[in-house]
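Risk register update: the risk of archive-format incompatibility is retired. Evidence:
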Amino acid sequence: IIEELADALTYCHDKKVIHRDIKPENLLLGFRGEVKIADFGWSAHTPSLRRKTVCGTLDYLPPEMIERKTYGEKVDLWCIGVLCYELLVGNPPFESASHNETYRRILKVDVKFPLSMPLGAQDLISKLLRYNPQERLPLAQILKHPWVRAHSRRVLPPCAQMAS
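Archived output:
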């Protein structure tokens, strides 16, 4: 899922589109199990890839949105980290009893990994959940990450399979 999502977001970012609301509810599975991004309601086409609007889903908001700073496509990298954690654990990493506590944990990047989480997944997530957007693992490096490579079950869309 993470591999196909990173590939799809590479396409979006190349077209100057930031999704801004990556979460399980906005991913669909195709007939052959391929991942598709849905709900572009919060997305922005912005040639400069710079925005200030606070939008998305609380548990997935990156620090720069909470602090109302100008941000770019790297908000989607943060969301991939939150998504990966949620897919493996069953709930998002910063989930708390109150909105304010969730905001506080996001701003501190207060992530606690369960002992059951594979070290490779912890490494990937910790490289995506960085306070400084410039330090987040780029999409191309997600695709090359050893844990992602080791667990690839990549399903190409039918048109790509016919071409090979």
